[in-house]
Amino acid sequence: MNKQLDIFGNEVKNVSKRNNTDKQKRNWENAFQRWSNKEFWQTNSYGKCGYGIMCDYCEDNSYGHPCVRALNQMCREKRIKIDYSKREFEDIWNGIFVNESGK
Contact at 8 Å (CB) between 52 and 67? Predict the structure, then answer.
């Protein structure tokens, strides 16, 4: 299949690398939402309708992954990158991000 695409001059992209990145992001987002939900039920200070840095961006929490949607919206507006290999969810909740540049 890749050789056929090359014949027509189309650039063959590394689809497997993109799929792995997408899978890592999706797994991170699912884990973050589970953490958020668990913290909400245990402490009532984090989680759905909590007071995280991304809560200002939450528009509707009546359907799936409200914290993830709000976090993604905030990251788009503020041009923040999340390192999906890190699992310090409380830091993310409190606005402590580590960009790819280490800042």
Answer: yes
- How far apart are the C-alpha atoms of 63 and 56, rounded to whole Å? 17
Give Cα 57 to chain centroid, integer Å: 14
pLDDT tens digits, one per residue of 37-70:
887 766 555 555 667 788 888 888 778 888 999 9
| Distance separating alpha carbons of residues 44 and 42, to the nearest angstrom | 6
For the cut 90, the answer to whether the pLDDT of residue 74 exceeds it is yes
- Is the pTM value of this prediction over 0.85? no
Question: Angle 20-38-87 (CA atoms, 0-180°, nearest 5)?
Answer: 35
In the chain, the N- to C-terminal Cα span, in Å, equals: 41
CB 46 within 8 A of CB 39: yes
Tokens of 53: 């840095």
Q: Are 71 and 32 in contact (CB under 8 A)?
A: yes
Task: Look at residues 93, 54, 98 and name the one whose alpha carbon lies nearest to residue 77.
Answer: 54
